[in-house]
Amino acid sequence: MHLPHLTKLISLEPGETVLMEVRRHMIVFYARILILVAFFFVPLFISPLIVLGVNKMAQSDIGAIVFGFLFTLWLAVIWMTFFYQWTDYYLDVWVITNKRIFDIDQKGFFSREISACRIEQLQDVSITVDGIMATFFKYGTIHIHTAGESHDFLIKDAASPMDVKNIIMQAHGRTIDEAVMKTTPAEIVH
Amino acid sequence: MDFDFGPIRTVAFSPTTLWIVWGLMFIVWVVMSAILLYHWNSYSIDDPKVRRMKIIYFVGGLLLFASATTFIFSL
Asked: Considering CB atoms only, which of A8, A53, A75 is closest to B5?
């Protein structure tokens, strides 16, 4: 899987390939956008009040024009907020490689946390699909338990959590197999 | 529909006032665009999805500011 855009965020080791890029389910993004849709309609509901109010204040019939102007700028604010939300959603990503799992957590515009754990450190991967929405839209939380000092990984609201779990488990299986293959017969005896 | 706003001051909604509001909003948009571009270019290089969103963002933004301008001219 060739993902050149990720090379700025993470540096891969020799022989390391990206298996999967996991993001939150789009429904999570749509839920955020619903608020923006509500904000879109608010000025329209109070438009008669604004138009009449401006007409009275200006003592001329320019209410509709001023409302149109202000509404257009309001749309520009909604437009910017939409793209801010999308960027925040899009840059929040988990990258599964054949050697590691990366958690790239974008917190607003000016804060980002990147953590990684090695595939061989995995102890258990569990998934939780909780609620009607999660069941219907097939998203859930993946809990990756790790050994050692690395903290556990939580992939929240991931799309197709079962597929993600399978890929992680396959990568883990391959890593363990490779480690066993590398073990010399002499080591096995001891 | 008639609303009673009570005693109200006269406000001059001149094109100059609207241009000031427009200008302030445009500055906010330029700053926001710079921040978004920085993130898109730095962390999502060569991503077709981001490239598409970039085009939509700028075309939509410019259309909105263009229509706000037409409202000022029609005042």
From this structure: A53
